[in-house]
Specification:
The protein is mainly β. 0% of the residues lie in helices and 52% in strands. It has no helices and 12 strands. It is globular, with a radius of gyration of 16 Å.
Length: 141
């Protein structure tokens, strides 16, 4: 995981911040469907902050083929989603490396606060995590 400054610092209604996720498959097997999944807990603001009135965040993934940014799923919840509910993902051959570019924006009516973004790597063919999840530091003001 790589982002400027090592974390995302967003402003409601402000510019999106980009980050990359690098997947390295050192395993002895190919992955046919490896999904990068994102989740964060509901933001709890500081005393005096007002709760958000909108969807909160927009996560997008760069489609290398077209050069366009496409919506990506960001789950905002305080519980873990069962791995069997994840679908999709792309191939990652044994010993291969894939870099994916994302950007996250805080919407005007979204909440403020701080919580890490949990990034998971799910093999959707086996309903298992292919690697330990990582945390991306995040705050929105």
């Amino acid at each position: 995981m790589d982002t400027r400054g090592g974390r995302l610092v967003l402003v409601r209604g402000g510019a999106a911040q980009e980050f990359t996720v690098t997947l390295r498959n050192g395993n002895s097997a190919d992955h046919r469907h490896l999904l990068v999944a994102f989740q964060m807990e509901v933001l709890v603001g500081e005393p005096g902050d007002r709760p958000g009135s909108g969807p909160g965040f927009l996560l997008e993934r760069l489609d290398r083929a077209s050069g366009a940014w496409r919506p990506a799923e960001l789950r905002v919840a305080n519980d873990a989603e069962p791995l069997s509910l994840y679908t999709g993902g792309g191939p990652l051959a044994r010993e291969a490396v894939r870099v994916e570019r994302y950007r996250l924006r805080a919407t005007v009516g979204g909440p403020t606060g701080s919580t890490p973004v949990v990034v998971s790597f799910v093999d959707t063919d086996t309903d298992r995590e292919a690697a330990a999840h990582v945390l991306l530091g995040h705050s929105t003001g």
